[in-house]
Design brief:
Order of helices and strands: EHEEHEEHEHEEHEEEEHEEEEEHEEEHH
Helix content: 25-40%
Number of domains: 2
CATH class of the largest domain: Alpha Beta
Shape: elongated
Radius of gyration: 21 Å
Strand content: 25-35%
Number of helices: 9
Oligomer: single chain
Number of strands: 20
CATH superfamily of the largest domain: FAD/NAD(P)-binding domain
Distance between the termini: 35 Å
């Protein structure tokens, strides 16, 4: 006999897991969240939710970032952020914070192409760009564009919004519950965990960097997810808190004010096993070297550093849909470096697909095609 039975079991307590759980329960925070669809149990292997990637995000909302399907999901998410912030208990989740895209002589053509593709980007002259961020070096900067509608995301606020809303609708959460084995009998999964046995008709794999490993327990073939380590450091530097986040077109560095200091990254993508990621001293040194080469900061020391895993499918698009060969097993993985900014629309899309319903029209209108996200594309 199972210790608990639910209609849906979600594996993973990060942003993907709590957001799809909330949407399944009709508590996604948007007009198109849908109606409640039965009971939901969330399993998290760690003692606390959002321990890994969700808690280590750079927390930017950038409609110009990523491939076209990513940008479509991000655009569709903006209204959902606003709706979530209007629930009376959730603080504003998006705070205006522009992004400055910069290019050296070798990447001007790439920036030109991005500006042509994304009308919301505003071309700036070199002088205008240095007016926005005076620390940019004259010897480095050859071209720039501004995304004025970018924003900072309250990641913890969004995660807690979904968790709070889902719990009000009956979500049960079991932390420290590692999945050990699973068996499909009839129309239900019997899942043995370190905290007991659960049964459910549908299992949703939102396990982030561990999603392929979780899938193997259920007999599903891996989709080829690759966790990539991303390093961030906070360094002392003379900054203006009003400066935007600055990212180079070649994606070799970014930096932004962090209080009275500077947050920097070499935008690294180092393949990794699914682990509790730690920063590498060489990657921190690379971040300092790259930012110093493009600016006048002259960084020589750090205050702190950390790392997280950004997990990508082979085509760098999310994986959301039922496994083509394993009944009752649904993938929600491969969000890469975009998982927070597009979380609301991706969760609403996934919940609709889990229920066998059409993707909401408001999301489709932004160009979201569920077939482009389906795991069957890797079969």
């Amino acid at each position: 006999m199972a210790d608990v039975t639910a209609d849906f079991v979600v594996i993973g307590g990060g942003m993907a897991g709590v957001s799809v759980a909330a949407n399944l329960l009709g508590a996604g925070g948007a007009a198109w969240s849908g109606d409640a669809a039965g009971s939901v149990l969330l399993l998290e292997a760690e003692p606390a939710l959002a321990h890994h990637t969700t808690g280590r995000s750079a927390a930017k909302f950038l409609e110009t970032y990523g491939a076209a399907p990513i940008r479509a999901l991000t655009r569709a998410s903006r209204a959902m952020y606003d709706a979530a912030s209007a629930d009376g208990e959730t603080p504003p989740l998006l705070t205006p914070g522009p992004e400055l895209l910069v290019a050296d002589a070798g990447t001007v053509a790439d920036l030109d192409a991005r500006v042509a593709e994304v009308p919301s980007l505003q071309r700036l002259s070199v002088d205008e760009a240095r007016g926005v961020c005076p620390a940019l070096s004259e010897s480095y900067l050859a071209s720039a564009a501004l995304e004025a509608d970018a924003a900072d995301i309250d990641v913890l606020g969004l995660h807690q919004h979904y968790l709070r809303a889902a719990r009000r609708r009956g979500l049960e959460v079991r932390s420290g519950a590692r999945v050990r084995s699973a068996e499909r009998t009839g129309d239900a999964w019997r899942v043995e965990t370190s905290e007991g046995v659960v049964e459910a008709g549908v299992v949703i794999d939102a396990a982030g960097a561990w999603a392929d490993r979780v899938a193997a327990v259920f007999g599903a073939a891996p989709v080829g997810l690759t966790p990539l380590r991303r390093t961030i450091a906070v360094v002392p530097a003379g900054v203006d808190r009003g400066w935007p986040i600055v990212a180079d077109m070649a994606e070799t560095f970014y930096f932004r004010p962090e209080g009275d200091a500077l947050l920097i990254s070499p935008a690294d993508e180092t393949p990794s096993d699914p682990v509790d990621a730690k920063p590498d001293d060489l990657d921190v040194a690379l971040a300092i070297e790259r930012v110093n080469a493009a600016t006048t900061f002259g960084i020589r020391s750090i205050r702190t550093a950390w790392a997280g895993l950004r997990t990508f499918a082979p085509d760098r698009l999310p994986v959301a849909g039922y496994d083509p060969a394993v009944p009752g097993f649904f993938w929600l993985a491969g969000q890469g470096g975009y998982g927070i900014q597009m979380a609301p629309a991706l969760a609403a899309t996934a919940a609709a697909l889990v229920r066998g319903e059409p993707v909401p029209g408001e999301i489709r209108a932004e160009g979201v095609d569920p077939d482009a996200l389906a795991p069957a594309r890797f079969s």
